[in-house]
């Protein structure tokens, strides 16, 4: 007698796995799908069978399931490590290979394999991640970026460099998320649903960025996206901004890449790193906290809002792009102001002496005239 398969049983395939993890962020799901599709294409090219057929065959084996599975995974790792990546670097990065393997692990567990992260570490030889020394964004480069951009997009870059928000966050910020007048600087309340950590946080916008932002805010209502006036989907606006920044980067000659193929200057990492570095000089970890790095946020949650504003105001001096004065220049200006003040006082003293001298001369002349009249 044939027993019908229960109607509530889901078929094990990539589509149903993606449906199962739908509560993850859209970006994460998209990456996982990309990893799994690549794995499936590799299996079809290598064995002329889709992943479901191969995985079913392995599960049906009475012995050596793990051996066969890890042999296939290791072959796939070796295959990836010898491929050229989408940025035309020599090889796909070690980080990409590791992300792919751990994404496949989740799918394999869904499929019915009892596999853990420790199993992967023990059974597979993964490429080591080579640490590249990243070059920080310079003030001159930021000048170049902003001077070659106009309108709302120029304001976007200024706001990002002074607030530490991710592209995915700043592009979803609405006017109602800003506290415009209550504090010394614009306070940004970033909703949990748009942050990477899914935790709400605050940050600030510099006075320099505020000057260019306010005219645009006056034109929109409270519920409007500030930097997404066309109300595109998050994926559409994110890709659009990345492409526009890529063309700008090419135009102004900032297209240099690391060996891994990653650009030295990028829309997200470079502007956020600029912000974090400047704020951390005031109090180490403060920049990380405002930028949304989870391990630092707890420490700064204990500070009052007034304390955070005070720290930000100290950091703001070095966050300035066009209005920046380094310590040496500021010291020289103060010295000149002091000299100017001293000179003014000396000049005022001389003028008073001249004025008094003239008064005395006038009194002498009048006295002589009176004496002459008496004669």
Automatic annotation (TrEMBL):
GO terms for molecular function: DNA binding. InterPro entries: DNA_brk_join_enz, Integrase-like_cat_sf, Integrase_recombinase_N. It comes from the Archaea. GO terms for biological process: DNA integration; DNA recombination. Keywords: Coiled coil, DNA recombination, DNA-binding. The keyword Ribonucleoprotein does not apply. SUPFAM superfamilies: DNA breaking-rejoining enzymes. Residues 326-353 form a coiled coil. This is Integrase family protein. It comes from Candidatus Nitrosopumilus sediminis.
């Amino acid at each position: 007698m044939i027993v019908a398969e229960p109607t509530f049983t889901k078929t094990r395939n990539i589509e149903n796995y993606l449906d199962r993890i739908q509560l993850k962020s859209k970006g994460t799901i998209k990456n996982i799908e990309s990893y799994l599709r690549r794995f499936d294409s590799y299996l079809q090219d290598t064995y002329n069978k889709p992943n479901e057929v191969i995985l079913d065959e392995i599960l049906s084996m009475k012995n050596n399931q793990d051996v066969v599975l890890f042999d296939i995974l290791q072959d796939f790792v070796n295959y990836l490590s010898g491929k050229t990546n989408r940025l035309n670097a020599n090889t796909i990065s070690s980080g990409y290979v590791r992300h792919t393997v751990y994404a496949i692990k989740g799918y394999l567990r869904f499929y019915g394999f009892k596999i853990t992260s420790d199993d992967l570490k023990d059974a597979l030889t993964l490429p080591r991640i080579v640490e590249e020394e990243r070059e920080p964004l310079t003030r001159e480069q930021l000048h170049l970026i902003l001077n070659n951009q106009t309108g709302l997009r120029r304001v976007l870059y200024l706001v990002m460099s002074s607030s530490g928000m991710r592209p995915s966050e700043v592009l979803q910020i609405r006017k109602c998320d800003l506290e415009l007048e209550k504090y010394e600087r614009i306070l940004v309340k970033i909703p949990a649903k748009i942050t990477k950590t899914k935790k709400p946080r605050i940050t600030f916008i510099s006075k320099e960025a505020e000057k260019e932002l306010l005219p645009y805010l006056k034109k929109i209502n409270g519920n409007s996206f500030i930097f997404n006036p066309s109300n595109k989907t998050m994926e559409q606006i994110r890709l659009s901004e990345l492409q526009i920044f890529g063309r700008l980067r090419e135009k102004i000659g900032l297209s240099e890449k690391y060996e891994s193929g990653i650009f030295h200057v990028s829309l997200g990492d470079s502007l956020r790193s600029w912000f974090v570095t400047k704020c951390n000089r005031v109090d180490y970890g403060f920049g990380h906290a405002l930028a949304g790095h989870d391990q630092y946020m707890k420490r700064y949650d204990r500070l009052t809002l007034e304390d955070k504003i005070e720290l930000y105001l100290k950091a703001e001096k070095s966050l300035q792009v066009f209005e920046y004065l380094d310590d040496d220049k500021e010291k020289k200006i103060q010295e000149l102001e002091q000299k100017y003040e001293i000179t003014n006082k000396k000049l005022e003293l001389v003028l008073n002496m001249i004025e008094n001298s003239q008064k005395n001369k006038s009194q002498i002349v009048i006295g002589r005239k009176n004496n002459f009249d008496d004669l």
